[in-house]
Amino acid sequence: MASDFEQFRNYASTVLKAKAFETDSGKESAHLFRASLETTQGHINWTSGAKNAHGEIFRLTPGFLDIYQPNALADRHNGRFIIAMHSALFVAITEFTMFCFAQRGFFSDIGDAAIETSPTPINDRPPGLWLIDLTNTGGRVNAEHNARLIPKCTDRYVMSIYLALLMARFVWMHELAHCFNGHVGLIHDQGIAIRLYESQDPQTLIGFSRPSHNMADRSKRLHCLELDADQSALSSSMRIQTDDNLENIVGIAELDKQTRQRLMLFGSYAMTWLFEEFQVYLNAQGGETHPLPYLRLHGLMQTSAKILPAHINNFTAMDAEVCSQFDFVRRSIPGFYESKSVLTDRAHPKIVDELGGLSEFFQGMLPDLEPLQFSQK
Ligand SMILES: [Zn+2]
To answer: Is residue 377 part of a domain?
Structure first.
C-alpha cells in the first residue's frame, strides 16, 4: 500500500497538477518545513479512531506543495482528507515574523529588543510578499536584505521562528477543522466548491456552484465555515499552550507558559491580516468566499474571550497586551491593525450583529453538517 506521503504526492500531481514539496530532501532550507509538518502530524495523531455518523474513519494527510503563491487548502481524494500549504505561504509567514521581531517595540520584554533597528519594508512591499516577489522575478536575497530582514538579537531571531511555526500551526489546524468538522464533506455534497482554499483562486470558483444556490447564500455558507474553522484552530492552538504536555516543539515547550500563550494569540490574530494581503496579491475579489479579515479577527477575539479566561489568569490584560503589539508593526506597515480601534470595535454594533447573524445562520446549517462531522466518542 502506498504510504501517506505517496498518496499526497499522487494527489498533488494528478488533481492539482502540482509538485509535493519534499521536506526530507536534506537541504538546509527544508528543515523548517519538516519541523512544521512533523509537529502537525503529531497533532493529527490525536484524531486517531474518530468516526462520523456514517461510520467512516477519519484519515488525513498533510503536506506542503511546491507552489510559489501563498495559499492553503483542504480537500478529499480517494477516501482520505488532504490538507496542504503552498511553500510560499510558509516562507511569507516566516518573513513576516522576522519583520515583527526586528521591530524594537514588539514584545520588547523578549531578548535584547534595544538592539533592533525597526526596519521599514523593503521596496514598500508588505513583509510576507516581498520575498515572493523577489523569488518570482529571479532575484536572490543578499547580505543587505538579510541585514534588514533578520532580527539582530539571536533570542529574538529564534523567537521569530517559533512564532512562524505557531502561525503555520494555526493554518494547519484551520485546514484540519475544515475536514474534521465536516466542511469538506458538505461543500462536496452541496456542490458549493470543489475544495476549500484560504485565498480565493479565481480559477477554482467558476462553474462549481449549483444553480439552486444563489451566490449570496453560497458566500454566507462559506463564510460560516471559515469562522467555524478559525474557532476550532484557535481552540486547539490554545489548548496546546495551556495544557502541560501537548506542545511537541521542544524549544516552544521550554518557554514559560505566558510567552507561549502571547505568541500563539498574536500569531492567530495576525494571520487574518496576512490572509488579506495574500488575497490582494492573488488579485481576486475579496469577500466572496471568506469573511473580511477584520471580521475574522473579531470572530477570533470573541472565541478567545469566551474560552480563554477559564485557562489563563487575567486573560483580559494579556489580550490587550497582545493587541498592543499591533501598533509596533503598524509603525512600519501603516495598513496593519491598530490596537485601540480593534479593542473598541469589539462592541461595535456592526461587528457584533454581523457575527451574531452568521452564527445564527450557521445553526441552520448544522442538520446538514452534523452527520459529516467526526468525533472520537
Ligand atoms: Zn478556511
So the answer is: no
Residue 261 belongs to what domain range?
4-372
What is the mean predicted confidence (pLDDT) over 350-364? 96
How many domains in the chain?
1
Tell me how far the alpha carbon of residue 333 lies from the centroid of ligand 1, in angstroms.
25
Question: Which ranges of 121-214 would DSSP assign to H, the alpha helix?
Answer: 130-136, 143-149, 154-180, 183-189, 202-205
Taken in order 23, 42, 46, 273, is the CA torsion positive or negative?
negative
Do 54 and 97 contact (CB within 8 A), yes or no?
Answer: no
Q: What is the pLDDT of residues 202-229, one digit of tens each?
A: 555 444 445 455 777 888 899 999 999 9
Distance 72 CA to ligand 1 centre (A): 8
Set of cell numbers at residue 268: 492567530
Going from the Cα of 229 to the center of ligand 1, the distance in angstroms, rounded, reads 6
The residue ranking higher by pLDDT, 263 or 330, is 263
User: How far are the Cα atoms of 145, 277, 331, 353 from residue 335, in angstroms, in the given order?
Assistant: 22, 10, 9, 25
Whether the predicted model's global pTM rises above the 0.85 cut: yes
